[in-house]
Specification:
Keywords: Membrane, Transmembrane, Transmembrane helix. This is TraX family protein. Helix 3 packs across helix 7 and helix 4 packs parallel to helix 10. The protein has one domain. A hairpin with a 2-residue loop joins strand 1 and strand 2. It has 10 helices and 2 strands. The longest helix has 25 residues. It is globular, with a radius of gyration of 20 Å. By secondary structure, the protein is mainly alpha-helical. The protein has a two-stranded antiparallel ribbon.
């Protein structure tokens, strides 16, 4: 005889949760808004403000991708391939020319972070703890310097953002606090940027535009490891969205400015 349960108090059914697929869509949406501001709608500052959310989500998903991929070599090669494919659309969008060497697209940033994580994890698994700590320190310093010298998107701070989600990976309270404090330091203290006056209860305070990247922690903290929808076409759509949408925006901008 089947047991009937009345008034179930299963809390997991009520828990708000975001899948990896949803995080990708959220990040792509906010990135599109930021790039709309950079091309077609430069007067709409709110687009780039809310667009600050995109990069931390991409950095977080890069770290998750490292620990969940079935083939790390293929994962890195995909990033490398789309970094190369995306460079010309990125140069056209940001520099207005086919070759714009003073700024590289964001996939290079993520790839640098991924390579650093792979190095640290390799040492962590096979060597003593003190060597891992030394390797992590050198990798962080080198990542900051190399990312800045190569002028990848978000420079060395972008590479460090990937490392933040690696070092503070998990849902323990100190991991969440570490993510918040580290992102605040990177985005507000290091990157800085425009300040916007905001009135709250009659008092005027200034909000750093780049500090709005901290809002990315809301969807990130709602992610609990569930992959969600996944297929090869969807995977490549997510990769292709970056170069394709930039190219489309450039073409539309050129058409409008004729």
């Amino acid at each position: 005889m089947n047991k009937i349960v009345i008034g179930s108090t299963d809390r997991s059914a009520k828990r708000i949760e975001i899948s990896a697929a949803a995080l990708h869509i959220i990040a792509m949406t906010f990135m599109l808004m930021d790039h709309l501001w950079a091309t077609l709608l430069p007067a709409q500052d709110w687009l780039t403000c809310i667009g600050r959310i995109a990069f931390p989500v991409f950095a977080f998903m890069t770290v998750e991708g490292y620990f969940h991929t079935h083939n790390l070599k293929k994962y890195m090669l995909r990033l490398l391939l789309f970094a190369l494919i995306s460079e010309i659309p990125f140069d056209l969008m940001y520099g207005g020319t086919w070759f714009y060497p003073i700024h590289q697209n964001v996939i290079w940033t993520l790839l640098m972070g991924l390579l650093g994580i792979h190095l640290m994890e390799t040492v962590h698994k096979n060597q003593k703890r003190w060597l891992y700590v030394l390797t992590a320190f050198v990798t962080v310093v080198f990542g900051m310097i190399f990312g800045t010298l190569c002028m990848v998107d978000y420079y060395g701070v972008g590479v460090l953002t990937v490392f933040v989600f690696y070092f503070f990976r998990g849902r323990r309270w100190w991991c969440l606090l570490g993510q918040f404090l580290a992102l605040y330091w990177l985005n507000v203290e290091l990157l800085g940027g425009l300040m916007y006056p905001v009135q709250i209860f009659g008092a005027e305070i200034e909000v750093c535009q780049q500090g709005l990247a901290l809002l990315a922690l809301i969807p990130i903290w709602l992610y609990r490891g569930r992959q969600g929808y996944h297929s090869k076409p969807f995977q490549y759509i997510c990769y292709a969205f970056y170069p394709v949408h930039m190219l489309v925006l450039v073409l539309v901008l050129n058409f409008v400015n004729r």
